Structures
1.
Amino acid sequence: MNTVSSALEPQDGPLVIGRTTLRSRLLVGTGKYATNEQMRDALALSGTDCVTVAVRRVNLVAGEPSLLDYIDRSRYAILPNTAGCFDAKTAIRTAELARELLGSEWVKLEVLGDPRTLLPDPIGTLEAARELVAQGFDVLAYCSDDPRMGVRLAELGVASVMPAGSPIGSGQGVLNPNAIRILLELIDKPVIVDAGVGTASDVAAAMELGVAGVLLNSAVALAREPLRMAAAMRDACRAGRNAFLAGRIERRLYANASSPLEGVVGSRP
Amino acid sequence: MTAAQASVEFLLNGERRSLPAGASVASLIAHLGLRSELVAVECNGAVVRRAEHATRLLADGDVLELVTLVGGG
């Protein structure tokens, strides 16, 4: 059996977001798993070293196990989000509470427009981003795929711009790859596709555009086999990243033979 | 001492609660049986830092939010 020498394995640099350095370019959410044990195992198989969590009121009935009992903090960076916040003020309060809980100064900022679409509210997002950057947070700003919105966020000093590929949890993949490509040309902050991933090819396609990373949750947690899908996402992220770094060939209208056209048996010299 | 002075009434995550007067944020967390390292506290819109939990006394009418981390994307 032939094995590829590990010395030949292509290398890649880390993903640097503000003051945080990550080895994996896949960021994985911790919501919607059937059990905490399933979540723990899916995170391990995904190869991620950064997981997202939400901030919510405590259950006043004591004794329930904590999510943190299932997340090894020596292995994973924990990125808190402001999911469920529909105005800048609530998102800022949530970020401040997350900082108190985790002792870290970064946040995935979500300011959403309404519960039905969960589309990001651009005005509220800019308002909250400005305040949190001023407070010293590394802000990872969830936003639409409008390139100009990404530019505005980058100008405010966010650590990462995180355009939605498609609506949260919709599984539609990256609907407008051209918008992502334009955004990548306009800003020099890491761009992470956040939301909308449905399956592994969505991750690979996003990474092939040249984004710095992909954040997903539902596509793993709600798959028929979450652990297998976690492994698929790990492989897709690496595949897409390597394909981007390797540089794809031009698309051509006509064929371009891989085998020589000369010297075919019976042909005339 | 009247009954009103013997206890302190406050809103905890939107629910009306009371504790004996002199209760601190730390004693509230202990009373609820919560692990303090998993809880962040906001009082009247401002975070109460962990280092202040023991010394911050609850006052009548305080609006408290106690939060923790849960699964999310």
2.
Amino acid sequence: MDDQKVTQLRIETDMRKPAAYFFFFFLPFLSMLVFFLIVQKNPLDFHLVFSDELDYWVETATLIKRGLFSPNAGYFGYSFGNFAVCLISVPTGSLV
Amino acid sequence: MTVLALNAFFMGISFSIAYYLIGSFRKILVIALSLFVFYPFYLYYQTGMIETLFYAGSIILAVLYVKCFTPGPRQQSFLRLYFWIVILFSLFRLSNLALLIPAFFVEIRLEKQRFLPVLLKYGVLAVGVALVSILTAASYPWGFLSELGRSTEKLSLIGAHTVANINLYFGESASNELEVWPRLLFLSWLIFLCFYSVFSKVLITKKTDYFLLSQILTMTAILFINLIFYDLGIFRDLRVFSPILVFSLIVCFLSNRGRVFIKIVFFLAVIFLLVSNYVVIIERNLAWDLFVARRYEAVHPPAILNSVRYNPDAKTRWENTVYVDLAAYGQLDWQNYDPGMGLMVLGLEDIESLKSANPGSLLKAKYIISNQQGQLAGYDFITEISNLSLYIKAH
């Protein structure tokens, strides 16, 4: 990389303002706040509705509390014929 | 509440990274504000679905895309980063593999790598990602791919499904406007890119613009994957098309294709946003009910999951698994859920087993929560609350 390019890169990086990072990071939180003010709902009353989001939530809770490779955590999925093939063959798993 | 904060966090990180890489406050602000008035984004922004993560990823990928096509000292690093983010997002949604097309073009056209080894590399990786995804995720039994897996006449099934999807794509038998418009916006944008690309090649540059061609091929691949293999329907394909549309719009907005091109992109984006919000006004009752009202209603579910506890000494994983009727799934007392308990939705075959003479010999899970009443052979009845019955496997 020649000196001119390095200098150009440094100038571009220096132009970014810390306040702008702060602004962009908090903008989505601000937009959510505006949303709650418009719809007049309390964010503390929020709960999940769709089965997909409920699945994500319970699976994440299991992952956090019992670990990724827990031999005892139960199966998730849709019926006996529709589970994850690799996750079924665990050391203690006896399916039949 | 945590879910909503996490959504805001993902978007905040994404905007900050985009600002770091682009360095233009004004451009990132335009992108951010536009996104917050685009309904496929803002409706899902209020949910715990994975969509917000995809939009956050789309912004970062779009910025990296522009950087990959811009010759410079860090082009290789941007390409690698783009590549691995696409691989990561493909594990969540396999069709995202189509986003590797631009990386492929950068390698063979701009970096002058040899075609066959690069093709082989991308092919092997795509197959690898698909295998990991297929082997570690449960398939959706009511989806087309499951049906295809069970079918003995696969080709004719694919043909019939594609024709049905093409009819659906243009709004025939659509139940609401919210699901139709993202398809049309996606297609309009793809057609615009095709026209502009041809116009640019014939009249202006006289050479192929791989920057635009990569997007055209990516969007076309996503379109065909959806038409051939996916299920178009209520709030399904909308979730696939929209983040890709946002990705392409941002790529073009940030490109250095000249002022006229940027102005056209901006003009089209404004039209898309106006159309999108007009659609929400038309379908405001549905949007309000599904994405707002139901999420803040006070609910008092029957306390049934508190009788289903995780057993750390279980000999098999089925001892920590509950079968749940799909109809009962939304009525459960999730605040009492014990992490580690697996929840498996009863499929059609299982419901048949449930109705059979001896369900206990056919079903594996220790618990069943169903809105079916009465005794189940092989299972002991524990309790019934608000039409939900809990059963435990008999010893």
